[in-house]
Design a protein that fits this description.
The protein is built from 13 helices and seven strands. By secondary structure, it is of the alpha/beta class. A seven-stranded mixed sheet has the order 3-2-1-4-6-5-7.
Length: about 375
């Protein structure tokens, strides 16, 4: 790759979120060099501390390529928030977002830029679902999932658009600045978040492109990505009424209530243990299941890994110890008063639940 020196500030910033995309980076830069010839541009890679050393590799390239910049994020992850930080780090009047996996067609970037320059729209989307576009070699299962997600996204999307799930788009700075204060950063579809967060409908145009094939690395799509998508939909539907993270925490808490009563019933009615001992076991089991489920889903963007899981679990136990003691103590008092085991268990759980959420959301999972 040849050295490039910027004589003028960038008119266009291309923001590329990365996680373990080291092998794709130089290929993408070469493609951008060709596609954006004659345009004052820069590329900002936002790397979520990739274990393959993507950030360090990009910094090495940037030593001889003035158009290349890198933001390395420590202790936080998420495609949408990575894109938001990359855009906020740019001063260019136009910003594009695309993936590092070479599946987005960089050759349509100049056409996107021309439409914005001409003030014909505020946002240009690279679309797979307009005439001339395509999804490449996707299998039927992935195609059906994408079609369903596109349909579901219309619950919150405020613009008529064929491909609101696209990860390839370009927009003007004013359009982004108007929406960013309301964006949730949840999930992995920043375009949908942006469209749903804009205070006024955004003027959108779509340009067809064929979705390419990944050359290096692995796809980041998994079942938890689907959960993030659901998190985004929920946030836009009810987030202004109830914080979506609290809603999911409460949902898992309801499941923990079922676990608690199942263990309490078995220990007290089947194993014939004392009520105090049964309630204690039920509290520990429910608290443990709640911790792992919240770590996996509710706090996925801050989830604990490796040895930090054990430290987090111990922290969770310690922080919730007061709630657990109150749980068992109050439940035992209620049971001794009226002998209704189910009512005693319910009162104990409610006391513990309030403490668990209030404290663990601040100390157990923190950025």
């Amino acid at each position: 790759m040849q050295s490039v020196y910027l004589a003028r500030p960038a008119e266009l910033t291309v923001v590329v979120p990365t996680f373990s995309e080291r092998d794709n980076v130089p290929l993408l830069i070469d493609r951008l060099n060709i596609a954006l010839n004659g345009i004052d541009w820069e590329v900002i890679f936002v790397d979520d501390d990739s274990p393959d050393g993507t950030a360090a590799y990009i910094r090495d390239i940037a030593q001889t390529h003035a158009r290349v910049r890198c933001i390395r994020r420590i202790g936080r992850r998420g495609l949408s928030t990575a894109c938001m930080e990359g855009i906020l780090a740019s001063c260019a009047p136009y910003v594009a977002v695309m993936d590092a996996d070479l599946q987005h067609d960089e050759r349509i970037l100049p056409e996107m830029l021309d439409l914005l320059r001409q003030k014909r729209c505020d946002l240009v989307v690279g679309s797979r679902y307009v005439a001339g576009g395509g999804i490449g070699n996707w299998d039927s299962k992935r195609a059906k999932i994408s079609a369903f997600a596109t349909w579901l996204s219309r619950l919150i999307c405020r613009a008529e658009i064929a491909d609101p799930m696209s990860g390839f788009f370009m927009l003007s700075r004013p359009a982004f600045d108007a929406a960013v204060g309301r964006m949730s950063g949840e999930g992995f579809k920043i375009l949908l978040d942006l469209l749903a967060s804009s205070p006024a409908p955004i003027r959108v145009q779509e340009i067809a492109y064929q979705f390419g094939t990944r050359r290096f690395g692995e796809s980041k799509l998994d079942t938890l990505v689907a959960w993030q998508f659901a998190l985004l939909i929920a946030d836009k539907l009810v987030g202004r009424i109830v914080p979506v993270r609290f809603a999911f925490f409460a949902l898992i808490g309801a499941l923990g209530l079922f676990v608690h009563f199942a263990v309490l019933w078995y220990c007290f009615k089947v194993a014939l243990l004392s009520f105090d001992y049964s309630q204690s076991l039920a509290t520990i089991v429910a608290m443990t299941s709640n911790f792992f489920l919240n770590n996996l889903f509710t706090y996925r963007d801050m989830r604990l890994r490796g040895w930090r899981i054990l430290r987090g679990l111990l922290s969770f136990y310690c922080i919730c110890a007061v709630g657990a003691i109150a749980n068992v103590g109050i439940a035992s008092y209620v049971f001794a008063t009226n002998q209704k085991w189910w009512l005693a268990g319910l009162v104990g759980v409610l006391i513990g639940a309030v403490w668990n959420y209030a404290v663990s959301s601040v100390f157990t999972w923190r950025r």
